[in-house]
Write a structure and sequence with these properties.
single chain, about 180 residues, alpha/beta, Rossmann fold, 6 helices, about 35% helix, globular, binds flavin mononucleotide
């Protein structure tokens, strides 16, 4: 499979990134092609709601920023992994900008090969995931119709723990 991981954490060695790297190791080892995009290093603006993509643009976005690189990967991806720290009960703002820009990529239909989705989340406190899970279910399972491959979380002392990284590595390795 071609797997696109969108990492919404700005911290290069933070908990989210450590889980992403463990997942990448497992999935790559199982023969999958994994592209990890650290979205915080990219220049990606929020959606302008100009409707160009839904009208004249026929699914292309009018904004020519680093999102163009993600659109290319999205067209090829069989699976997407959304990874983020929890900021104020939701996904990071940088990742939210990327998700809003799916507005053009999901029109007139979802990316052609995309079938599966998973989520990786890190937070300070427990039970902080309702906002992220609302987006996961509403936008990715229901709206895009993707298969739920699982949600992996770490909070507090779990952040950076070997147990969490092992879980992500095994998950990546288990993908068919
Ligand atoms: C702007 C900001 C907002 C945050 N909001 C929350 C929150 O609402 N709930 C929570 O449990 N942790 C919150 N945190 C803590 C992070 O989710 C936590 O430190 C996480 O492990 C960071 O992941 P990272 O190491 O990948 O950056 C917040 C941190 C920042 C910087």
């Amino acid at each position: 499979m071609k797997i696109l991981v969108l990492n919404g954490s700005p911290r290069p060695n933070g908990s989210t990134k450590q889980m992403v790297t463990a997942f990448e190791e497992g999935a790559t080892g199982a023969g999958h092609k994994v592209d990890v995009i650290d979205v915080c290093k990219k220049r990606i603006s929020g959606c302008l709601a100009c409707e160009y993509c839904h009208m004249k643009g026929h699914g292309t976005c009018v904004q020519k920023d680093d999102m163009q690189e993600i659109y290319v990967l999205l067209k090829e991806a069989d699976m997407i992994v959304l990874a983020s720290p929890i900021y104020y009960h939701g996904l990071s703002g940088q990742l939210k900008c990327v998700i809003d820009r799916f507005y053009s990529a999901a029109y007139p239909q979802k990316p052609p090969h995309l079938k599966k989705v998973a989520m990786i989340l890190s937070s300070g406190d427990a039970n902080m995931y309702d906002g992220a899970l609302f987006s996961f279910k509403g936008d990715f399972l229901d709206y895009l119709g993707l298969e739920d491959m699982g949600v992996f979380t770490a909070h507090g002392m779990e952040n950076g723990a070997e147990k969490q990284k092992d879980e992500l590595k095994k998950f990546g390795a288990s993908l068919k």
